Amino acid sequence: MSTLPFGLVDFPPSGVMMVMRCEELACLEKSLGARLRAAGEEQGWWGASKMIVAVSGGGDSVAMGALLRRFWGGTQIWGHVDHGIREVSHRDSQFVESLARAWGIRCFVARRNVPCERLKGESIEMAARRVRHEFLEGLARSEGCGYVATAHSMDDQVETVMLNLTRGAGIWGLAGMPHRRGPWVRPVIAMRRSELRRYLQLLGVEWVEDETNQSRDYVRNRVRLDLIPWIEDNLNPAFSDRIFDLSVECLKNRLIITSRRGAILPWLRRPFYPARVTWDRKRAASLSPQDLAEALRGEGACLKLPSLDRVRIQELVRKIRDKGPFSCPWKVGWWVVGDRERIYFLKEPLAYHEVERVNLSELLNNPGSNVDVRWGPWLIRFDIPTTRTPDASFRGGSNLQLGYVPLDLSDPDVFIKPLDESSCPVPRPLRPLYPRVLSSAGEWYPGKGDAISVSMCAIIARVRLMPKG
Questions:
Q1: Dihedral, CA atoms, 289, 291, 292, 297, nearest 10 degrees?
Q2: Distance CA 135, CA 52 (A)
Q3: Is 95 helix (H, G, I), strand (E, B) or coil?
Q4: Burial of 434 from C-beta contacts in 10 A (0-12 / 13-18 / 19+)
Q5: CB-based contacts of 115: which residues, under 8 Å, 6+ apart?
Q6: Is pLDDT of 6 > 90?
């Protein structure tokens, strides 16, 4: 925590020193205020009437709140998440609530237990970011705000670029964090951490320090505390400024690539339930490696998936262009799976193994009724048709698959199992996600065809296969 209690200014008794301090504050405010406005105009939020501001209680976010309060004409609504990771995290939330009250700002605090809310494949940091983003985006919706501000500074950007370099980043990684992504904006992205803390010291405003920021157990902290200071001391004192300038240049190029990507993705997509996204593989393979890599990054962003490093993206590009079947994990339980015709973005589970037993006696006793069964991603509806229509051909996961299964009056049970029929038209990667309906008199699965005649059985049940809403 800073040495100055909130609301107090520790001016030395000397009148000369007081004047010097006031002049320093005025000069720093002028510079920071100009950069804040430039960020607001570039990112589009300067003219907004209100905005969600993510405040952790640290120096960067408190300084951002102070600068917005001083220079911006809109209304701040603070959002804070107590992640339940650190023993003293309640101290941070109490501080933020107290400061918001002192400044007359509405503040919403969410208290969560992130370690217990982690998803498969998530690190603690990833889970905390997901929980925080969900809360802040929900708060923005409920408050009718179009923007959510975070306090990433120039130092955060430089650290991000350096970390991306160690992972083999290309131009995408060298651009670092976008200054705006959807509703997320970064008002202090062009300000140094030291400037923001000095501004608070001159104001006499305190903040809280996260003690984990000094722990060298984390790679980012080692970059911040050791690597960058060494480079600035021994190679280039302006290293951070130069890296930030590089990120801005790469970001401009990335925006050009992103605009092109926006035209490519609709051209690739071919809906095929239950895959969340399906691409036409022939079209994907026809793209240049660079365009295909950017399309993969773009689809991952659309699905809100963690980004992949350049090596993983290049591996996916190679497998898609090789045209053979493949299956590659993304992250957090997502997979990219390909056959000769399509590429599927699938979320685990990639197969359903349960066998469902359904008794259709109700249909036999009440011909006008129906029986609904939820199996995997499907709603399966059984009824007894009064008239027969030709069996619908397989339409690749459209909103309705229609077929018929014969029933034995003495045995009205049917079983729903995962599809394993090798001759069916369902693409192989999706077969474990499709049902097969079996009775003692016959079976049906999507694409089986209409091979049932009335003379073969006494009763025929109609099967309608619909996506489970």
A1: 120
A2: 11
A3: helix
A4: buried
A5: 84, 85, 124, 127
A6: no
Asked whether the beta carbons of 279 and 270 are under 8 A apart, the reply is yes
Mean pLDDT over 134-160 rounds to: 97
**Which residue numbers belong to the known binding site for ATP?**
56-61
| pLDDT value for 261 | 85
CA-based end-to-end distance of the chain: 50
Q: How far apart are CA 291 and CA 264, in angstroms?
A: 8
Helix (H) or strand (E) holding 20: helix 15-43
Q: How far apart are CA 355 and CA 61, in angstroms?
A: 53
Q: Retrieve residue 19's tokens.
A: 């004047």
Task: Find out whether 193 and 137 touch, Cβ atoms under 8 Å.
Answer: no
> Using CA atoms, how far apart are residues 407 and 393, in angstroms rounded to an integer?
21
| Residues annotated within a binding site | 56-61
Q: Whose structure tokens read 């015709």?
A: 341
- Tell me the C-alpha distance between 103 and 65, whole Å: 10
3-state helix, strand, coil in the chain (%, to 5): 45, 20, 35
Domains of the chain: 15-241 (3.40.50.620), 269-347 (3.30.465), 356-467 (no CATH)
pLDDT-derived band of residue 3, with 50, 70 and 90 as boundaries? very low
Q: Where are the alpha helices (DSSP H) in 144-238?
A: 154-166, 171-174, 193-203, 219-222, 228-234
CA distance 158 to 156: 5
Global pTM reads 0.66
Tens of pLDDT, residues 388-436: 665 555 666 555 677 888 888 888 899 999 988 766 788 889 989 989 9
Q: How far is CA 41 from the centre of its chain?
A: 26
User: 161-175 pLDDT, tens per residue?
Assistant: 999 998 877 788 899
